[in-house]
């Protein structure tokens, strides 16, 4: 499916942490002169975390109030006064932030669920406890009491997936609002020393004025964050904590799924027990274990129809894998080039249930970060196989000892148990950057492809991969260089090998290599430029443990850009070019296409942002269109244009939208615009405790000739495909309290694809198949398709104690497609959805932290 992959600038951690600016100091509320840096005070009486800051111990703490305005007016004095106080004891760090406000009735107290901070008045506390000026953690608290946290790596890269158990509370009064945070020291990594010196940064956001006030001057055009933190002093006699946390869980579920042979639906109760263990071996090292984890509370993946010849990418959402994921992530991430991710955690549990996993991570010494992850997946086949009468018997299965369910809930056949392993080490090169190494393994633990149903001559396939990486940056952060060199080797597989979509044959012990490098001037004004190159050899295969959608391809891209801050009333404006070319990496070095586009983007004073681009792609060929044939198939050249906009998210109603169009530059286009892709998302916040988001996406694309089949005579057959897709999404959030939320998610997906003008041509491996050489033909059966699907999730989340949670989840998945022999209805109306096969489930999961 043709999809425009650019998007409007999101209001995310990355954007919020990038908008940094200097300002002037303010006087303190009590008249004491402002501090140049943060000073912490030890307390023998821990304060109550209630947001009031009225205990006597808070009045004896040195006060920091030197805040600077970064946005919307660079360097202007803050419109409101802010004070910060820091306390500590042997177990916790306490931060109190007093936010005076001349219009307290206008303070935005919009609520959100944990880790989904609304656009409201917010304070963020950022801590670099190692004082390495590259890594840190962020603790955010809104005026309504919603919490969010994140981890910062490589000075500016923010990972919002990190989670920590900490407390926060807020109160409002006639002079403003206050935020109080209790951060356990076990969440922070720091060395053993008589006196600690940490980096600390505090940011305040005022929703109604769009101001961002920072505790240190950080110009927006500078590509730096952690390296500019103010110093936190006077932390004495702190011992790195050691703690063991056990979080057992019990999950009870009942499902109503489609019966066999159009029979009545079948009830399937199940029970799972498991445990999560986290051991803080030191302030720098931690060990995490999960046994029989359950992730039913995680939101379902977006429904889509993938018409490309590459694998779709889905983001990780499971808490165990999200924690510390940034350490295993590549230093070079660019989905527009040949992506090469050595460890893609969604591989784990994709086809078989996750039996258990262990993760070890942290720092060895002052400059070495290490991480090791090992996971085992194993499934159990229905011992009865598929039969007309469901098998409701309960049996103990050694491969899933903590899962209790009837045999009818088990699949007819499963793949072999597999062990996934990943290890990474990264050494910090002072303040210049890091150098690292990664190794991964996917090892089948059985010689059978399918247990229960053995396939003759089938051999499980595994793989191993390794890579080294380098990330460098100048002291200012304006100049960066990142590179990754990787290699892979196939283990096992069919005796005759596996044929890839471009015709490459992969056999046991085949090896390949890849390279990805990007660098340039990415900060400062006015000129910036980035150069990127990626190379994947024909036999590079990172997919057993990683994500590599393309092989046998190399690409070169140049991106010059002119950027100005505070230009003609705009906080930020930029215009740039993007030029790229692609070739194959086999002996042919075949050109695969080139593109050039112009990009314009801007941020407006009211926090609205937008961008537009337009360009052409020419000379395109696909090595994967004709599956496994080794034929380069010519694709029509096209021109494109698109614009996106995102309005101020702090207002009661905010909107994000995108419009993208293409026009084929050939006689194959039956209409003036070959592609029309439109998205519109609106979020309404009528009350602080209520948020409703509605989204719609429409895709009407002329794909041109697409491969259908290859006959025994070597003739390839094609049909011109015109698909249309419509997606409607609803997200409803009700915040009963900062620890009790109800969230609903619904997605309706409908689409069809119409084939016409069937053509054919004979072409052997290594040849180029041109569009003008296709000759008309006919097919016996119309390959057009239509599908409609519905996903529903309703999640009640109650954090009844720190680290302890109760989930109640209802889920429904339903899909309908034409039955064999039934005519395809080319409509986006979800006809027959009520008759489609549906699975309903209700689950309750209770966990308790010890």
From TrEMBL:
Which Gene3D superfamilies does the record cross-reference, listed alphabetically? 2.60.40.1190
UniProt keywords, alphabetically: Signal
* Residues of the signal peptide: 1-27
DUF5916 domain ranges (all copies): 240-350, 497-812
Q: Does the keyword Signal apply?
A: yes
Query: From what superkingdom does this record's organism come?
Result: Bacteria
Q: Cross-referenced InterPro entries, in alphabetical order? A: DUF5916 (IPR045670)
Q: Which Pfam families match?
A: DUF5916
Question: What sections of the protein cross the membrane?
Answer: none
Protein name as annotated: DUF5916 domain-containing protein
Give the species.
Answer: Cystobacter ferrugineus
**Organismal lineage:** Bacteria, Pseudomonadati, Myxococcota, Myxococcia, Myxococcales
């Amino acid at each position: 499916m043709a999809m425009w992959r650019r998007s409007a600038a999101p209001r995310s951690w990355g954007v919020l942490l990038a908008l940094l600016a200097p300002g002037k100091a303010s006087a303190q509320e009590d008249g004491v002169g402002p501090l140049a840096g943060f000073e912490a005070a030890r307390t023998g009486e821990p304060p109550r975390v209630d947001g009031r800051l009225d205990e006597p111990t808070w009045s004896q703490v040195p006060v920091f109030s030197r805040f600077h305005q970064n946005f919307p007016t660079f360097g202007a004095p803050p419109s409101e006064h802010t004070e910060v106080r820091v306390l500590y004891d042997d177990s916790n760090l306490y931060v109190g932030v007093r936010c005076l406000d001349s219009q307290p009735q206008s303070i935005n107290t919009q609520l959100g669920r944990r880790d989904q901070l609304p656009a409201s008045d917010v304070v963020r506390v950022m801590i670099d406890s190692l004082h390495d000026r590259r890594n840190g953690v962020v603790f955010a608290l809104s005026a309504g009491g919603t919490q969010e946290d994140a981890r910062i790596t490589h000075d500016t890269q923010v990972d919002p997936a990190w989670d920590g158990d900490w407390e926060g509370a807020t109160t409002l009064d006639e002079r403003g609002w206050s935020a109080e945070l209790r951060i356990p020291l076990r969440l922070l990594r720091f060395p053993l020393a008589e006196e600690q010196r940490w980096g600390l940064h505090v940011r305040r956001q005022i929703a109604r004025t769009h101001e961002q006030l920072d505790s240190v001057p950080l110009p927006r055009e500078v590509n730096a964050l952690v390296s500019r933190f103010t110093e936190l002093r006077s932390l004495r006699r702190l011992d790195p904590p050691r703690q063991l946390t056990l979080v057992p869980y019990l999950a009870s579920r009942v499902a109503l799924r489609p019966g066999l042979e159009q029979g009545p639906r079948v009830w399937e109760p199940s029970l799972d027990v498991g445990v999560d263990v986290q051991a803080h071996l030191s302030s720098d090292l931690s060990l995490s274990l999960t046994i029989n984890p359950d992730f039913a509370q995680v939101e379902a993946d977006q429904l889509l129809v993938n018409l490309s010849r590459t694998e779709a990418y889905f983001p990780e959402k499971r808490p165990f894998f999200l924690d510390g994921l940034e350490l295993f992530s590549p230093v070079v991430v660019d989905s527009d080039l040949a992506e090469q991710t050595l460890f893609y955690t969604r591989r784990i549990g994709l086809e078989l249930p996750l039996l258990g996993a262990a993760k070890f991570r942290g720092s060895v010494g002052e400059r070495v970060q290490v991480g090791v992850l090992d996971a085992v997946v194993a499934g159990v086949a229905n011992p009865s196989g598929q039969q007309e009468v469901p098998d409701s018997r309960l049996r103990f299965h050694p491969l899933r000892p903590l899962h209790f369910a009837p045999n009818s809930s088990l699949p007819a056949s499963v793949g072999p148990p597999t062990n996934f392993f990943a290890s990474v080490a990264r050494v910090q090169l002072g303040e210049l950057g890091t150098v690292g190494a990664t190794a991964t393994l996917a090892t089948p633990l059985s010689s059978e492809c399918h247990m229960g149903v053995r396939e003759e001559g089938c051999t499980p396939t595994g793989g191993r991969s390794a890579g080294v990486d380098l990330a460098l940056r100048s002291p200012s952060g304006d100049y960066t260089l990142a590179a990754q060199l990787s290699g892979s080797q196939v283990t096992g597989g069919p005796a005759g090998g596996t044929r890839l979509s471009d015709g490459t044959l992969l056999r046991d012990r085949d090896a390949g290599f890849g390279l990805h490098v990007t660098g340039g001037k990415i900060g400062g004004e006015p000129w910036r430029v980035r150069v990127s190159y990626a190379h994947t050899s024909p036999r590079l295969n990172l997919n057993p443990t990683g994500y590599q959608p393309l092989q046998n391809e190399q690409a070169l891209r140049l991106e010059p850009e002119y950027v100005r801050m505070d230009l003609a009333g705009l906080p930020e404006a930029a215009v740039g070019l993007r030029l790229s070319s692609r070739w194959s990496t086999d002996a042919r070095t075949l050109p695969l296409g080139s593109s050039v586009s112009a990009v314009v983007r801007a941020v407006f004073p009211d926090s609205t942002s937008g961008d537009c681009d337009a360009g052409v792609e020419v000379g395109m060929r696909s090595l994967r269109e004709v599956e496994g044939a080794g034929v380069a198939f010519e694709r029509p050249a096209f021109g494109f244009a698109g614009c996106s906009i995102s309005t101020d998210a702090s207002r009661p109603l905010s909107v994000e939208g995108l419009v993208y169009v293409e026009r084929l530059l050939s006689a194959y286009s039956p209409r003036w615009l070959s592609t029309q892709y439109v998205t519109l998302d609106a979020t309404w916040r009528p009350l602080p405790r209520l948020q409703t988001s509605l989204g719609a996406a429409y895709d009407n694309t002329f794909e041109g000739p697409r491969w259908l089949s290859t006959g025994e005579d070597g003739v390839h057959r094609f049909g011109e495909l015109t698909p249309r897709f419509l997606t409607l999404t609803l997200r409803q959030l009700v915040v009963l309290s900062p620890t009790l939320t109800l969230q609903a998610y619904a997605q309706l997906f409908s689409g069809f694809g119409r084939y016409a003008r069937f053509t054919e041509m004979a072409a052997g491996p290594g040849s180029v198949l041109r569009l003008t050489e296709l000759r008309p033909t006919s097919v016996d059966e119309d390959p057009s398709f239509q599908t409609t699907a519905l996903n529903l999730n309703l999640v009640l989340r109650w954090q009844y104690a720190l680290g302890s949670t109760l989930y109640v989840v209802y889920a429904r998945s339903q899909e309908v497609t034409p039955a064999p022999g039934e005519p395809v209805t080319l409509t986006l109306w979800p006809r027959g959805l009520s008759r489609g096969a549906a699975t309903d489930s209700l689950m309750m999961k209770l966990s308790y932290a010890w």
